[in-house]
Amino acid sequence: MAIFLTVIQVISALFLICVVLLQSGKSAGLSGAIAGGADTFLSKSKGLDDKLAKMTKWVALVFVLLTFILNLI
């Protein structure tokens, strides 16, 4: 059982790394704060970045839960 959960955790870790690397970078600095705020306010469509952000949250949650479960075993 522990080996199976470890394999699932490694797969989720690799998937989490891929999802994070596929996301676009956020603008930094004062110019990025001004332009980025206008872009997020005016655009209402859900793009690939929104889907990747949601996927990152769920995969990270699975990874953390697997870590806790493996720690208890």
What is the domain tally? 1
CA(first)-CA(last) distance:
9 Å
Number of DSSP helical runs: 3
Main beta sheet: none
Task: Report the structural category.
Answer: mainly alpha
Please give a structural write-up.
The chain has one domain. The chain is mainly α and 73 residues long. The model has no long low-confidence stretch (mean pLDDT 82). It contains 3 helices and no strands. 82% of the residues lie in helices and 0% in strands.
Task: Briefly summarize what is shown.
The chain has helices at 2-22, 29-42, 48-72.
Topology of this structure?
Blueprint: H1 2-22, H2 29-42, H3 48-72
Q: Can you give keywords for this protein?
A:
73 residues, mainly alpha, 3 helices, 0% strand, elongated
